[in-house]
Amino acid sequence: MAKIVQCVPNFSEGRRPEIVEQIVQAIDGASDVRIVDYSLDEDHNRSVVTFLGAPEDIRASAFAGAAAAVDLIDLNTHKGGHPRIGAVDVIPVVPIREMTMPDAVALSYEIGKDIADNLCLPVYFYEKSAVMVHRADLAAVRKGGYEGMKKRGLSGDSEPDLGPSELHPTAGAVVVGARGPLIAFNVNLNTDDVKIARDIAVKIRKSRDAGEAMAGVKALGVYLKSRGIAQVSTNITQPHQTTIYDVYTFVEREARAAGVGVLESELIGGMLEDHLIEAVNAAMNVRGLSEKRILDRWM
Amino acid sequence: MAKIVQCVPNFSEGRRPEIVEQIVQAIDGASDVRIVDYSLDEDHNRSVVTFLGAPEDIRASAFAGAAAAVDLIDLNTHKGGHPRIGAVDVIPVVPIREMTMPDAVALSYEIGKDIADNLCLPVYFYEKSAVMVHRADLAAVRKGGYEGMKKRGLSGDSEPDLGPSELHPTAGAVVVGARGPLIAFNVNLNTDDVKIARDIAVKIRKSRDAGEAMAGVKALGVYLKSRGIAQVSTNITQPHQTTIYDVYTFVEREARAAGVGVLESELIGGMLEDHLIEAVNAAMNVRGLSEKRILDRWM
Protein backbone atom coordinates (compact mmCIF):
# COMPACT_ATOMS: atom_id res chain seq x y z
CA MET A 1 0.00 0.00 0.00
CA ALA A 2 1.37 3.36 -1.03
CA LYS A 3 1.25 6.53 1.06
CA ILE A 4 -1.74 8.71 0.23
CA VAL A 5 -2.33 12.31 1.29
CA GLN A 6 -5.35 14.51 0.70
CA CYS A 7 -4.94 18.25 0.10
CA VAL A 8 -7.90 20.67 0.09
CA PRO A 9 -6.67 24.20 -0.59
CA ASN A 10 -9.15 27.07 -0.43
CA PHE A 11 -8.76 29.90 -2.93
CA SER A 12 -10.23 33.40 -2.77
CA GLU A 13 -12.12 33.21 -6.06
CA GLY A 14 -15.56 31.71 -6.50
CA ARG A 15 -17.19 33.77 -9.22
CA ARG A 16 -14.91 33.48 -12.25
CA PRO A 17 -14.82 29.79 -13.28
CA GLU A 18 -12.00 30.43 -15.77
CA ILE A 19 -9.66 31.52 -12.97
CA VAL A 20 -10.48 28.50 -10.80
CA GLU A 21 -10.04 26.21 -13.79
CA GLN A 22 -6.56 27.62 -14.42
CA ILE A 23 -5.64 26.91 -10.81
CA VAL A 24 -7.02 23.35 -11.06
CA GLN A 25 -5.05 22.81 -14.26
CA ALA A 26 -1.88 23.99 -12.53
CA ILE A 27 -2.48 21.51 -9.69
CA ASP A 28 -3.31 18.69 -12.08
CA GLY A 29 -0.39 19.39 -14.41
CA ALA A 30 2.32 19.58 -11.75
CA SER A 31 2.30 15.92 -10.67
CA ASP A 32 0.41 12.65 -10.62
CA VAL A 33 -2.26 13.79 -8.13
CA ARG A 34 -5.92 12.96 -8.75
CA ILE A 35 -8.42 15.78 -8.66
CA VAL A 36 -11.42 14.45 -6.76
CA ASP A 37 -13.51 17.60 -6.94
CA TYR A 38 -13.49 21.36 -7.10
CA SER A 39 -16.37 23.66 -6.39
CA LEU A 40 -17.01 27.37 -6.60
CA ASP A 41 -18.90 29.11 -3.85
CA GLU A 42 -20.37 32.17 -5.50
CA ASP A 43 -21.85 33.53 -2.30
CA HIS A 44 -18.57 33.54 -0.41
CA ASN A 45 -16.45 34.09 -3.52
CA ARG A 46 -14.23 31.13 -2.60
CA SER A 47 -13.42 27.76 -4.06
CA VAL A 48 -12.16 24.47 -2.69
CA VAL A 49 -10.11 21.96 -4.66
CA THR A 50 -9.81 18.39 -3.36
CA PHE A 51 -6.96 16.19 -4.57
CA LEU A 52 -5.19 13.01 -3.52
CA GLY A 53 -1.72 11.67 -4.14
CA ALA A 54 1.65 10.55 -2.89
CA PRO A 55 3.41 13.01 -0.54
CA GLU A 56 5.90 14.23 -3.16
CA ASP A 57 3.11 14.78 -5.69
CA ILE A 58 1.02 16.65 -3.13
CA ARG A 59 4.02 18.87 -2.40
CA ALA A 60 4.51 19.74 -6.10
CA SER A 61 0.81 20.28 -6.81
CA ALA A 62 0.05 22.29 -3.67
CA PHE A 63 2.89 24.61 -4.63
CA ALA A 64 1.72 24.86 -8.25
CA GLY A 65 -1.82 25.73 -7.12
CA ALA A 66 -0.50 28.39 -4.76
CA ALA A 67 1.72 29.86 -7.48
CA ALA A 68 -1.22 30.03 -9.90
CA ALA A 69 -3.39 31.74 -7.28
CA VAL A 70 -0.67 34.33 -6.57
CA ASP A 71 -0.52 35.06 -10.30
CA LEU A 72 -4.25 35.19 -10.93
CA ILE A 73 -5.96 36.59 -7.83
CA ASP A 74 -5.73 40.15 -6.47
CA LEU A 75 -7.10 40.32 -2.94
CA ASN A 76 -7.40 44.11 -3.17
CA THR A 77 -10.32 43.71 -5.57
CA HIS A 78 -11.72 40.54 -3.95
CA LYS A 79 -15.01 40.76 -2.11
CA GLY A 80 -16.69 38.06 -0.05
CA GLY A 81 -18.14 37.60 3.40
CA HIS A 82 -15.91 34.69 4.42
CA PRO A 83 -12.78 35.50 6.49
CA ARG A 84 -9.62 35.14 4.35
CA ILE A 85 -6.08 36.42 4.37
CA GLY A 86 -4.73 35.16 1.05
CA ALA A 87 -5.30 34.46 -2.63
CA VAL A 88 -4.49 30.89 -1.62
CA ASP A 89 -6.03 31.21 1.80
CA VAL A 90 -5.49 27.91 3.55
CA ILE A 91 -3.82 24.64 2.55
CA PRO A 92 -4.92 21.71 4.72
CA VAL A 93 -2.91 18.50 4.38
CA VAL A 94 -4.68 15.29 5.52
CA PRO A 95 -3.00 11.91 6.06
CA ILE A 96 -5.22 9.28 4.43
CA ARG A 97 -3.27 6.04 4.06
CA GLU A 98 0.06 4.76 5.36
CA MET A 99 0.77 8.23 6.72
CA THR A 100 0.98 9.31 10.34
CA MET A 101 -0.01 12.77 11.47
CA PRO A 102 3.68 13.64 12.05
CA ASP A 103 4.35 12.62 8.42
CA ALA A 104 1.63 15.02 7.30
CA VAL A 105 2.99 17.77 9.55
CA ALA A 106 6.45 17.30 7.99
CA LEU A 107 4.91 17.51 4.52
CA SER A 108 3.06 20.72 5.43
CA TYR A 109 6.37 22.27 6.53
CA GLU A 110 7.91 21.42 3.16
CA ILE A 111 4.96 22.97 1.33
CA GLY A 112 5.13 26.07 3.53
CA LYS A 113 8.86 26.43 2.93
CA ASP A 114 8.48 26.07 -0.85
CA ILE A 115 5.86 28.82 -0.81
CA ALA A 116 7.77 31.17 1.50
CA ASP A 117 11.01 30.76 -0.46
CA ASN A 118 9.62 31.02 -3.96
CA LEU A 119 6.39 33.02 -3.84
CA CYS A 120 7.30 35.70 -1.28
CA LEU A 121 4.25 34.89 0.81
CA PRO A 122 4.18 35.05 4.61
CA VAL A 123 3.30 31.52 5.86
CA TYR A 124 1.44 30.59 9.07
CA PHE A 125 1.27 27.00 10.28
CA TYR A 126 -2.04 25.94 11.90
CA GLU A 127 -3.77 22.89 13.38
CA LYS A 128 -1.37 19.99 14.00
CA SER A 129 1.42 21.96 12.31
CA ALA A 130 1.08 25.00 14.58
CA VAL A 131 4.49 26.13 15.85
CA MET A 132 2.86 28.68 18.13
CA VAL A 133 0.13 27.17 20.25
CA HIS A 134 -2.42 29.93 19.64
CA ARG A 135 -2.18 29.32 15.89
CA ALA A 136 -3.72 25.85 16.08
CA ASP A 137 -7.08 27.55 15.57
CA LEU A 138 -7.60 28.79 12.02
CA ALA A 139 -9.99 31.55 13.10
CA ALA A 140 -7.31 33.00 15.38
CA VAL A 141 -4.75 33.09 12.56
CA ARG A 142 -7.14 34.75 10.13
CA LYS A 143 -8.46 37.29 12.64
CA GLY A 144 -9.27 40.60 10.94
CA GLY A 145 -8.74 39.06 7.52
CA TYR A 146 -6.49 40.48 4.83
CA GLU A 147 -7.66 44.04 5.43
CA GLY A 148 -7.11 43.84 9.19
CA MET A 149 -3.62 42.40 8.86
CA LYS A 150 -2.74 45.01 6.25
CA LYS A 151 -3.74 47.72 8.70
CA ARG A 152 -1.97 46.36 11.75
CA GLY A 153 1.12 44.89 10.03
CA LEU A 154 2.80 41.54 10.63
CA SER A 155 4.97 42.34 13.60
CA GLY A 156 4.68 40.92 17.13
CA ASP A 157 1.82 38.45 17.40
CA SER A 158 1.34 38.41 13.65
CA GLU A 159 4.98 37.61 12.76
CA PRO A 160 4.72 34.79 10.20
CA ASP A 161 6.32 31.39 10.85
CA LEU A 162 8.13 31.55 7.52
CA GLY A 163 8.63 34.07 4.71
CA PRO A 164 8.60 37.84 4.55
CA SER A 165 7.32 39.98 7.43
CA GLU A 166 4.94 41.83 5.17
CA LEU A 167 1.91 40.81 3.19
CA HIS A 168 2.31 40.05 -0.49
CA PRO A 169 0.89 43.15 -2.27
CA THR A 170 -1.81 41.22 -4.13
CA ALA A 171 -1.85 37.70 -2.65
CA GLY A 172 -1.71 38.44 1.10
CA ALA A 173 -0.53 35.49 3.18
CA VAL A 174 -1.25 31.77 3.50
CA VAL A 175 -2.10 29.31 6.27
CA VAL A 176 -0.73 25.77 5.90
CA GLY A 177 -1.17 22.76 8.16
CA ALA A 178 -1.91 19.11 8.75
CA ARG A 179 -5.26 18.02 10.17
CA GLY A 180 -7.42 14.92 10.39
CA PRO A 181 -10.15 14.24 7.82
CA LEU A 182 -13.26 16.34 8.16
CA ILE A 183 -16.53 16.38 6.27
CA ALA A 184 -17.74 19.70 4.91
CA PHE A 185 -21.49 19.16 5.08
CA ASN A 186 -24.23 21.75 4.68
CA VAL A 187 -27.98 21.58 5.17
CA ASN A 188 -30.09 23.98 3.10
CA LEU A 189 -33.38 25.23 4.51
CA ASN A 190 -36.49 26.17 2.58
CA THR A 191 -36.47 29.67 4.02
CA ASP A 192 -34.68 32.94 3.36
CA ASP A 193 -34.62 33.65 7.10
CA VAL A 194 -30.93 33.36 7.99
CA LYS A 195 -31.77 33.82 11.67
CA ILE A 196 -33.29 30.34 11.76
CA ALA A 197 -30.05 28.86 10.35
CA ARG A 198 -27.99 30.86 12.84
CA ASP A 199 -30.15 29.70 15.76
CA ILE A 200 -29.75 26.07 14.66
CA ALA A 201 -25.97 26.57 14.41
CA VAL A 202 -25.97 27.92 17.96
CA LYS A 203 -27.92 24.85 19.12
CA ILE A 204 -25.39 22.57 17.44
CA ARG A 205 -22.50 24.32 19.18
CA LYS A 206 -24.31 24.26 22.54
CA SER A 207 -25.09 20.57 22.22
CA ARG A 208 -21.45 19.92 21.30
CA ASP A 209 -20.06 22.00 24.15
CA ALA A 210 -22.44 20.35 26.62
CA GLY A 211 -21.24 16.94 25.41
CA GLU A 212 -24.79 15.91 24.48
CA ALA A 213 -24.43 15.34 20.74
CA MET A 214 -22.75 16.89 17.70
CA ALA A 215 -19.23 16.05 18.96
CA GLY A 216 -16.63 17.85 16.86
CA VAL A 217 -19.16 19.73 14.73
CA LYS A 218 -18.44 23.35 13.80
CA ALA A 219 -21.56 25.12 12.58
CA LEU A 220 -22.49 28.49 11.10
CA GLY A 221 -25.76 29.88 9.80
CA VAL A 222 -25.28 31.65 6.47
CA TYR A 223 -27.43 33.27 3.80
CA LEU A 224 -26.96 32.10 0.21
CA LYS A 225 -27.83 35.20 -1.76
CA SER A 226 -27.47 33.41 -5.09
CA ARG A 227 -30.30 31.06 -4.17
CA GLY A 228 -32.22 33.18 -1.68
CA ILE A 229 -32.04 30.54 1.04
CA ALA A 230 -30.54 30.04 4.49
CA GLN A 231 -27.96 27.31 5.13
CA VAL A 232 -26.55 25.57 8.17
CA SER A 233 -22.93 25.12 7.13
CA THR A 234 -20.91 22.57 9.11
CA ASN A 235 -17.52 20.98 9.37
CA ILE A 236 -17.66 17.55 10.97
CA THR A 237 -14.21 17.19 12.50
CA GLN A 238 -14.84 13.91 14.34
CA PRO A 239 -16.62 11.97 11.62
CA HIS A 240 -16.32 8.65 13.48
CA GLN A 241 -18.35 10.12 16.33
CA THR A 242 -20.81 12.33 14.50
CA THR A 243 -22.06 11.24 11.08
CA ILE A 244 -23.67 13.30 8.33
CA TYR A 245 -26.94 11.56 9.23
CA ASP A 246 -26.67 12.77 12.83
CA VAL A 247 -26.12 16.35 11.66
CA TYR A 248 -28.91 16.10 9.08
CA THR A 249 -31.49 14.81 11.55
CA PHE A 250 -30.44 17.38 14.19
CA VAL A 251 -30.93 20.22 11.72
CA GLU A 252 -34.15 18.75 10.35
CA ARG A 253 -35.67 18.44 13.82
CA GLU A 254 -34.70 21.99 14.79
CA ALA A 255 -35.89 23.36 11.45
CA ARG A 256 -39.25 21.70 11.93
CA ALA A 257 -39.49 23.14 15.42
CA ALA A 258 -38.89 26.57 13.86
CA GLY A 259 -41.64 25.96 11.34
CA VAL A 260 -39.46 25.46 8.26
CA GLY A 261 -38.16 22.46 6.36
CA VAL A 262 -34.99 21.03 4.85
CA LEU A 263 -34.54 21.49 1.12
CA GLU A 264 -31.51 19.24 0.70
CA SER A 265 -28.07 18.68 2.09
CA GLU A 266 -24.72 19.14 0.41
CA LEU A 267 -21.28 17.56 0.51
CA ILE A 268 -18.30 19.78 -0.31
CA GLY A 269 -15.23 17.88 -1.51
CA GLY A 270 -14.97 14.22 -0.65
CA MET A 271 -15.53 11.83 2.21
CA LEU A 272 -14.21 8.42 3.18
CA GLU A 273 -16.19 5.23 2.60
CA ASP A 274 -15.98 4.44 6.30
CA HIS A 275 -17.75 7.67 7.16
CA LEU A 276 -20.48 6.99 4.61
CA ILE A 277 -21.06 3.54 6.06
CA GLU A 278 -21.18 5.00 9.57
CA ALA A 279 -23.89 7.41 8.39
CA VAL A 280 -25.92 4.51 6.98
CA ASN A 281 -25.48 2.65 10.25
CA ALA A 282 -26.60 5.72 12.21
CA ALA A 283 -29.76 5.72 10.11
CA MET A 284 -30.45 2.00 9.90
CA ASN A 285 -28.13 0.03 12.19
CA VAL A 286 -27.24 -2.48 9.48
CA ARG A 287 -25.66 -5.72 10.74
CA GLY A 288 -22.94 -6.87 8.41
CA LEU A 289 -22.48 -3.59 6.56
CA SER A 290 -18.78 -2.81 6.38
CA GLU A 291 -16.32 -1.63 3.77
CA LYS A 292 -15.58 -5.20 2.71
CA ARG A 293 -19.24 -5.77 1.85
CA ILE A 294 -19.13 -3.04 -0.78
CA LEU A 295 -18.47 -5.03 -3.94
CA ASP A 296 -16.65 -2.18 -5.67
CA ARG A 297 -13.84 -2.45 -3.12
CA TRP A 298 -12.86 -5.84 -4.53
CA MET A 299 -12.57 -4.84 -8.15
CA MET B 1 -11.25 -2.55 -17.16
CA ALA B 2 -11.53 -6.29 -16.78
CA LYS B 3 -14.76 -8.28 -16.85
CA ILE B 4 -16.15 -8.94 -13.38
CA VAL B 5 -18.90 -11.35 -12.41
CA GLN B 6 -20.49 -11.95 -9.03
CA CYS B 7 -21.62 -15.42 -7.99
CA VAL B 8 -23.78 -16.04 -4.89
CA PRO B 9 -24.48 -19.75 -4.55
CA ASN B 10 -26.82 -20.94 -1.79
CA PHE B 11 -25.99 -24.18 -0.02
CA SER B 12 -28.28 -26.36 2.09
CA GLU B 13 -26.16 -26.24 5.24
CA GLY B 14 -26.28 -23.49 7.84
CA ARG B 15 -25.59 -25.23 11.13
CA ARG B 16 -22.23 -26.92 10.73
CA PRO B 17 -19.61 -24.20 10.12
CA GLU B 18 -16.93 -26.78 9.27
CA ILE B 19 -18.94 -27.99 6.27
CA VAL B 20 -19.54 -24.46 4.97
CA GLU B 21 -15.87 -23.61 5.49
CA GLN B 22 -14.82 -26.61 3.38
CA ILE B 23 -17.11 -25.42 0.60
CA VAL B 24 -15.71 -21.89 0.84
CA GLN B 25 -12.17 -23.28 0.70
CA ALA B 26 -13.04 -25.26 -2.42
CA ILE B 27 -14.38 -22.09 -4.07
CA ASP B 28 -11.39 -20.04 -2.98
CA GLY B 29 -8.83 -22.66 -3.97
CA ALA B 30 -10.15 -23.33 -7.47
CA SER B 31 -9.29 -19.98 -9.04
CA ASP B 32 -8.45 -16.33 -8.48
CA VAL B 33 -11.91 -15.32 -7.25
CA ARG B 34 -12.26 -13.08 -4.20
CA ILE B 35 -14.55 -14.23 -1.41
CA VAL B 36 -16.50 -11.14 -0.32
CA ASP B 37 -18.55 -12.83 2.35
CA TYR B 38 -20.19 -16.02 3.50
CA SER B 39 -22.84 -16.36 6.13
CA LEU B 40 -24.65 -19.22 7.83
CA ASP B 41 -28.36 -18.98 8.44
CA GLU B 42 -28.97 -21.34 11.34
CA ASP B 43 -32.72 -20.85 11.30
CA HIS B 44 -33.12 -21.86 7.67
CA ASN B 45 -30.14 -24.21 7.70
CA ARG B 46 -28.72 -22.55 4.60
CA SER B 47 -25.67 -20.52 3.71
CA VAL B 48 -24.78 -17.99 1.06
CA VAL B 49 -21.29 -17.42 -0.32
CA THR B 50 -20.56 -14.23 -2.24
CA PHE B 51 -17.56 -14.08 -4.56
CA LEU B 52 -16.31 -11.97 -7.44
CA GLY B 53 -13.98 -12.66 -10.32
CA ALA B 54 -13.30 -12.96 -14.02
CA PRO B 55 -15.78 -15.16 -15.93
CA GLU B 56 -13.36 -18.12 -16.29
CA ASP B 57 -12.54 -17.97 -12.56
CA ILE B 58 -16.21 -17.82 -11.64
CA ARG B 59 -16.81 -20.88 -13.82
CA ALA B 60 -14.06 -22.88 -12.09
CA SER B 61 -15.01 -21.81 -8.55
CA ALA B 62 -18.77 -22.21 -8.97
CA PHE B 63 -18.12 -25.75 -10.13
CA ALA B 64 -15.70 -26.45 -7.26
CA GLY B 65 -18.24 -25.18 -4.71
CA ALA B 66 -20.97 -27.35 -6.23
CA ALA B 67 -18.69 -30.40 -6.23
CA ALA B 68 -17.81 -29.86 -2.56
CA ALA B 69 -21.50 -29.50 -1.63
CA VAL B 70 -22.37 -32.72 -3.48
CA ASP B 71 -19.63 -34.49 -1.50
CA LEU B 72 -20.46 -33.01 1.89
CA ILE B 73 -24.22 -32.48 2.11
CA ASP B 74 -26.93 -35.15 2.25
CA LEU B 75 -30.36 -33.64 1.60
CA ASN B 76 -32.06 -36.74 3.05
CA THR B 77 -30.91 -35.71 6.52
CA HIS B 78 -31.20 -31.93 5.93
CA LYS B 79 -33.94 -30.04 7.73
CA GLY B 80 -34.91 -26.41 7.26
CA GLY B 81 -37.99 -24.34 6.55
CA HIS B 82 -36.68 -22.68 3.40
CA PRO B 83 -37.67 -24.25 0.05
CA ARG B 84 -34.69 -26.07 -1.54
CA ILE B 85 -34.10 -28.82 -4.06
CA GLY B 86 -30.34 -29.34 -3.82
CA ALA B 87 -27.21 -29.51 -1.69
CA VAL B 88 -26.07 -26.65 -3.87
CA ASP B 89 -29.52 -25.21 -4.27
CA VAL B 90 -29.20 -22.22 -6.54
CA ILE B 91 -26.27 -20.58 -8.32
CA PRO B 92 -27.02 -16.99 -9.39
CA VAL B 93 -24.53 -15.36 -11.76
CA VAL B 94 -24.55 -11.54 -11.81
CA PRO B 95 -22.81 -9.36 -14.42
CA ILE B 96 -21.01 -6.57 -12.53
CA ARG B 97 -18.51 -4.89 -14.84
CA GLU B 98 -17.84 -5.02 -18.57
CA MET B 99 -20.32 -7.88 -18.85
CA THR B 100 -23.70 -7.82 -20.58
CA MET B 101 -26.59 -9.92 -19.35
CA PRO B 102 -26.21 -12.22 -22.40
CA ASP B 103 -22.53 -12.72 -21.39
CA ALA B 104 -23.71 -13.77 -17.92
CA VAL B 105 -26.36 -16.06 -19.39
CA ALA B 106 -23.69 -17.75 -21.53
CA LEU B 107 -21.50 -18.19 -18.46
CA SER B 108 -24.40 -19.71 -16.50
CA TYR B 109 -24.88 -22.27 -19.31
CA GLU B 110 -21.21 -23.26 -19.10
CA ILE B 111 -21.48 -23.66 -15.32
CA GLY B 112 -24.68 -25.70 -15.69
CA LYS B 113 -23.08 -27.94 -18.32
CA ASP B 114 -19.96 -28.55 -16.17
CA ILE B 115 -22.20 -29.59 -13.29
CA ALA B 116 -24.53 -31.78 -15.35
CA ASP B 117 -21.64 -33.52 -17.11
CA ASN B 118 -19.39 -34.10 -14.12
CA LEU B 119 -21.55 -34.19 -10.99
CA CYS B 120 -24.58 -36.15 -12.27
CA LEU B 121 -26.95 -33.42 -11.07
CA PRO B 122 -30.12 -32.42 -12.91
CA VAL B 123 -29.78 -28.72 -13.83
CA TYR B 124 -32.58 -26.16 -14.22
CA PHE B 125 -31.92 -22.72 -15.73
CA TYR B 126 -33.86 -19.82 -14.18
CA GLU B 127 -34.21 -16.02 -14.39
CA LYS B 128 -32.52 -14.57 -17.48
CA SER B 129 -31.12 -18.02 -18.32
CA ALA B 130 -34.53 -19.74 -18.34
CA VAL B 131 -34.91 -21.92 -21.43
CA MET B 132 -38.54 -22.64 -20.55
CA VAL B 133 -40.50 -19.47 -19.85
CA HIS B 134 -42.17 -20.74 -16.68
CA ARG B 135 -38.75 -21.43 -15.13
CA ALA B 136 -37.80 -17.74 -14.98
CA ASP B 137 -39.33 -17.74 -11.51
CA LEU B 138 -37.22 -19.54 -8.91
CA ALA B 139 -40.21 -20.39 -6.72
CA ALA B 140 -41.84 -22.22 -9.66
CA VAL B 141 -38.72 -24.31 -10.28
CA ARG B 142 -38.34 -25.25 -6.62
CA LYS B 143 -42.05 -26.03 -6.10
CA GLY B 144 -42.49 -28.87 -3.64
CA GLY B 145 -38.83 -28.83 -2.76
CA TYR B 146 -36.53 -31.85 -2.81
CA GLU B 147 -39.10 -34.08 -1.14
CA GLY B 148 -41.87 -33.09 -3.56
CA MET B 149 -39.73 -33.64 -6.63
CA LYS B 150 -38.53 -36.97 -5.28
CA LYS B 151 -42.15 -38.06 -4.94
CA ARG B 152 -43.39 -36.90 -8.32
CA GLY B 153 -40.24 -37.63 -10.39
CA LEU B 154 -38.56 -35.44 -12.99
CA SER B 155 -40.63 -36.30 -16.06
CA GLY B 156 -42.92 -33.96 -17.99
CA ASP B 157 -42.96 -30.47 -16.53
CA SER B 158 -40.04 -31.30 -14.24
CA GLU B 159 -37.70 -32.59 -16.97
CA PRO B 160 -34.36 -30.87 -16.27
CA ASP B 161 -32.74 -28.59 -18.86
CA LEU B 162 -29.48 -30.54 -18.61
CA GLY B 163 -28.22 -33.67 -16.87
CA PRO B 164 -29.88 -36.87 -15.70
CA SER B 165 -33.68 -37.20 -15.50
CA GLU B 166 -33.54 -38.28 -11.90
CA LEU B 167 -32.48 -36.57 -8.70
CA HIS B 168 -28.99 -37.18 -7.36
CA PRO B 169 -29.50 -39.60 -4.43
CA THR B 170 -27.99 -37.25 -1.83
CA ALA B 171 -27.55 -33.86 -3.56
CA GLY B 172 -30.88 -33.47 -5.37
CA ALA B 173 -30.79 -30.98 -8.22
CA VAL B 174 -29.53 -27.44 -8.87
CA VAL B 175 -30.91 -24.21 -10.30
CA VAL B 176 -28.47 -22.01 -12.23
CA GLY B 177 -29.03 -18.66 -13.89
CA ALA B 178 -28.03 -15.09 -14.62
CA ARG B 179 -29.81 -12.21 -12.95
CA GLY B 180 -29.28 -8.54 -12.17
CA PRO B 181 -27.79 -7.42 -8.85
CA LEU B 182 -30.13 -7.59 -5.89
CA ILE B 183 -29.75 -6.64 -2.27
CA ALA B 184 -30.63 -9.22 0.36
CA PHE B 185 -31.80 -6.95 3.16
CA ASN B 186 -33.65 -7.93 6.33
CA VAL B 187 -35.25 -5.87 9.07
CA ASN B 188 -35.43 -7.47 12.51
CA LEU B 189 -38.31 -6.57 14.83
CA ASN B 190 -38.25 -6.42 18.60
CA THR B 191 -41.05 -8.93 18.85
CA ASP B 192 -41.44 -12.70 18.65
CA ASP B 193 -44.80 -12.26 16.93
CA VAL B 194 -44.12 -13.49 13.39
CA LYS B 195 -47.61 -12.45 12.31
CA ILE B 196 -46.55 -8.80 12.51
CA ALA B 197 -43.61 -9.49 10.19
CA ARG B 198 -45.86 -11.43 7.81
CA ASP B 199 -48.42 -8.61 7.74
CA ILE B 200 -45.69 -6.08 6.94
CA ALA B 201 -44.42 -8.35 4.15
CA VAL B 202 -47.95 -8.47 2.71
CA LYS B 203 -48.10 -4.66 2.83
CA ILE B 204 -44.79 -4.43 0.98
CA ARG B 205 -46.04 -6.76 -1.74
CA LYS B 206 -49.35 -4.90 -2.02
CA SER B 207 -47.61 -1.55 -2.25
CA ARG B 208 -45.32 -2.99 -4.93
CA ASP B 209 -48.13 -4.55 -6.92
CA ALA B 210 -50.17 -1.35 -6.72
CA GLY B 211 -47.17 0.59 -8.04
CA GLU B 212 -47.16 2.85 -4.99
CA ALA B 213 -43.72 2.08 -3.53
CA MET B 214 -41.41 -0.87 -2.91
CA ALA B 215 -40.83 -1.47 -6.65
CA GLY B 216 -39.08 -4.80 -7.17
CA VAL B 217 -39.11 -5.77 -3.49
CA LYS B 218 -39.81 -9.39 -2.57
CA ALA B 219 -40.73 -9.77 1.08
CA LEU B 220 -41.43 -12.55 3.56
CA GLY B 221 -42.17 -12.54 7.27
CA VAL B 222 -40.13 -15.19 9.09
CA TYR B 223 -39.45 -16.26 12.65
CA LEU B 224 -35.82 -16.54 13.77
CA LYS B 225 -35.98 -19.28 16.34
CA SER B 226 -32.30 -18.91 17.23
CA ARG B 227 -32.93 -15.34 18.41
CA GLY B 228 -36.61 -15.50 19.30
CA ILE B 229 -37.52 -12.59 17.01
CA ALA B 230 -39.56 -11.92 13.89
CA GLN B 231 -37.92 -10.68 10.70
CA VAL B 232 -39.07 -9.02 7.52
CA SER B 233 -36.77 -10.65 4.97
CA THR B 234 -36.49 -8.92 1.60
CA ASN B 235 -34.79 -9.13 -1.74
CA ILE B 236 -34.51 -5.74 -3.41
CA THR B 237 -34.40 -6.64 -7.09
CA GLN B 238 -34.55 -3.08 -8.46
CA PRO B 239 -32.05 -1.38 -6.18
CA HIS B 240 -31.88 1.77 -8.33
CA GLN B 241 -35.58 2.30 -7.71
CA THR B 242 -36.00 1.11 -4.15
CA THR B 243 -33.13 1.63 -1.69
CA ILE B 244 -32.43 -0.11 1.59
CA TYR B 245 -33.49 3.14 3.29
CA ASP B 246 -36.88 3.03 1.58
CA VAL B 247 -37.42 -0.55 2.75
CA TYR B 248 -36.16 0.25 6.26
CA THR B 249 -38.47 3.25 6.73
CA PHE B 250 -41.45 1.37 5.26
CA VAL B 251 -40.95 -1.49 7.72
CA GLU B 252 -40.25 0.88 10.61
CA ARG B 253 -43.45 2.83 9.99
CA GLU B 254 -45.58 -0.31 9.73
CA ALA B 255 -43.92 -1.83 12.78
CA ARG B 256 -44.68 1.28 14.79
CA ALA B 257 -48.29 1.17 13.61
CA ALA B 258 -48.44 -2.41 14.90
CA GLY B 259 -47.03 -1.31 18.25
CA VAL B 260 -43.55 -2.81 17.90
CA GLY B 261 -40.15 -1.46 16.96
CA VAL B 262 -37.15 -2.19 14.76
CA LEU B 263 -34.19 -3.85 16.43
CA GLU B 264 -31.74 -3.53 13.54
CA SER B 265 -31.42 -4.29 9.87
CA GLU B 266 -29.11 -6.75 8.15
CA LEU B 267 -27.26 -7.02 4.87
CA ILE B 268 -26.62 -10.50 3.50
CA GLY B 269 -23.70 -10.72 1.08
CA GLY B 270 -22.57 -7.54 -0.62
CA MET B 271 -23.97 -4.47 -2.29
CA LEU B 272 -22.71 -1.97 -4.84
CA GLU B 273 -21.41 1.46 -3.84
CA ASP B 274 -23.97 3.08 -6.12
CA HIS B 275 -26.80 1.45 -4.19
CA LEU B 276 -25.33 2.59 -0.89
CA ILE B 277 -25.11 6.17 -2.14
CA GLU B 278 -28.68 5.99 -3.42
CA ALA B 279 -29.78 4.92 0.08
CA VAL B 280 -27.98 7.92 1.61
CA ASN B 281 -29.60 10.18 -0.95
CA ALA B 282 -33.02 8.72 -0.18
CA ALA B 283 -32.40 9.60 3.48
CA MET B 284 -30.73 12.98 3.08
CA ASN B 285 -30.87 14.17 -0.54
CA VAL B 286 -27.16 15.08 -0.59
CA ARG B 287 -26.12 17.40 -3.42
CA GLY B 288 -22.75 16.41 -4.77
CA LEU B 289 -22.62 12.93 -3.27
CA SER B 290 -21.57 10.48 -5.96
CA GLU B 291 -19.15 7.60 -6.27
CA LYS B 292 -16.37 9.92 -7.36
CA ARG B 293 -16.66 11.89 -4.11
CA ILE B 294 -15.77 8.80 -2.08
CA LEU B 295 -12.04 9.26 -1.58
CA ASP B 296 -11.36 5.52 -1.36
CA ARG B 297 -12.33 5.17 -5.02
CA TRP B 298 -9.26 7.14 -6.05
CA MET B 299 -6.67 5.12 -4.16
Instruction: Output the radius of gyration of chain A.
Output: 19 Å
Share of residues in strands of chain A = 15-25%
Number of strands of chain A: 12
CATH class of the largest domain in chain A: Alpha Beta
- Per the CATH scheme, the topology name of the largest domain in chain A is Formiminotransferase-cyclodeaminase, Chain B, domain 1
CATH homology superfamily of the largest domain in chain A: Formiminotransferase, N-terminal subdomain
Distance between the termini of chain A: 16 Å
Q: What's the helical proportion of residues of chain A?
A: 25-40%
Given as residue ranges, the uncertain stretches of chain A (5+ residues, pLDDT < 50) are: none
Largest interface: A-B, 42 and 43 residues
Major beta sheet of chain A, specifics? 7 strands, mixed
Order of helices and strands of chain A: EEHEEHEHEHHEEHEEHEHE
Average residue pLDDT of chain A? 96
CATH architecture of the largest domain in chain A: 2-Layer Sandwich
Number of domains of chain A: 2
List keywords for this structure.
Formiminotransferase-cyclodeaminase, Chain B, domain 1, alpha+beta, Alpha-Beta Plaits, 299 residues, homodimer
What can you tell me about this protein's structure?
The structure is a homodimer of 299-residue chains. Chain A has 299 residues and is an alpha+beta fold. The first copy, chain A, folds into 2 domains: 4-178, Formiminotransferase, N-terminal subdomain (Formiminotransferase-cyclodeaminase, Chain B, domain 1), CATH 3.30.990; 183-295, Formiminotransferase, C-terminal subdomain (Alpha-Beta Plaits, 2-Layer Sandwich). Chain A is built from 8 helices and 12 strands. The first copy, chain A, has helices at 17-29, 55-72, 101-119, 138-141, 145-152, 194-209, 244-257, 273-284; strands at residues 4-7, 10-11, 34-41, 46-53, 88-97, 123-125, 174-178, 183-189, 217-224, 229-236, 262-268, 286-287. In chain A, the strands form 2 sheets. In chain A, strands 1, 2, 3, 4, 5, 6 and 7 form a 7-stranded mixed beta sheet that branches. The longest helix of chain A is centred in the middle third of the chain and has 19 residues, at 101-119. The mean pLDDT of chain A is 96. Chain A binds chain B through residues 4, 6, 34, 36-37, 39, 52, 96-97, 244-245, 248, 264-273, 276-277, 279-280, 283-289, 291-299, and chain B through 4, 6, 34, 36-37, 39, 52, 96-97, 244-245, 248, 262, 264-273, 276-277, 279-280, 283-289, 291-299. Strand 11 (262-268) of chain A pairs parallel with strand 12 of chain B.
